[in-house]
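2024-03-11 09:14:02 INFO worker-7 job=invfold-0412 stage=load source=structure_tokens
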């Protein structure tokens, strides 16, 4: 469910979007938690997952958004029976694709960043300028049965692929970039015919 913010909140933020996420690992218990993406100043995007506020430097936010979308493509491919190859690009996170014994593909993206707690218990994630700055790890994983996980040193957040599409798009929109929301719409409307239109390709390792 997407929540609309009031006019006062919009005026305070250059961008603000909210959604209730399905906790993928607790979905059988109908576990939900809130997610909010906002931008109130240059060079950073805020993401609040449940009660934790995380602040990404712009370059980090964009790369995580793209890695989330990679994970969605791999997950949709597994569900629909085809193997998409996310486009090659320079990536801050190291992206790894593996084929399992079952025939499904898994996706892992891992990166080490300059991470620290700022005033107000805000967890800041910035691009590291050297090895000594790599104080924290951030990862994006595909998980069993069609979910995606965003992992920090302090917590793992699991959610559905539709939540992952929304989050990747919200991060991109907060940066003033084009969103990725076409996949969610197309997969719901066209289903397997849309998936087959991509054809079969072979996943790769960056």
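2024-03-11 09:14:09 INFO worker-7 stage=emit residues=206
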């Amino acid at each position: 469910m997407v929540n609309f913010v009031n006019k006062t909140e919009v005026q305070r933020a250059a961008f603000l979007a909210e959604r209730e996420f399905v906790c993928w690992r607790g979905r059988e218990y109908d576990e939900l938690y809130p997610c909010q993406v906002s931008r109130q100043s240059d060079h950073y995007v805020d993401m609040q997952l449940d009660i934790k506020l995380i602040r990404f430097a712009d370059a980090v936010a964009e790369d995580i958004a793209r890695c989330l979308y990679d994970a969605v493509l791999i997950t949709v491919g597994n569900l629909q029976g085809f193997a998409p190859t996310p486009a090659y690009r320079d990536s801050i996170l190291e992206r790894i694709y593996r084929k399992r014994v079952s025939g499904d593909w898994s996706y892992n993206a891992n990166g080490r960043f300059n991470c620290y707690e700022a005033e107000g218990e805000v967890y800041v994630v910035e691009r590291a300028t050297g090895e000594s700055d790599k104080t924290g790890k951030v990862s994006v994983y595909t998980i069993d049965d069609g979910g995606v996980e965003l992992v920090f040193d302090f917590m793992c957040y699991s959610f559905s692929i539709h939540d992952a599409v929304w989050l990747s798009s919200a991060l991109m929109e907060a940066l003033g970039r084009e969103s990725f929301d076409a996949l969610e719409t197309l997969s719901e409307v066209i289903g397997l015919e849309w998936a087959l239109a991509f054809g079969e390709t072979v996943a790769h390792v960056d």
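2024-03-11 09:14:09 INFO worker-7 stage=report msg="The CA atoms of residues 147 and 200 lie 22 Å apart."
2024-03-11 09:14:10 INFO worker-7 job finished
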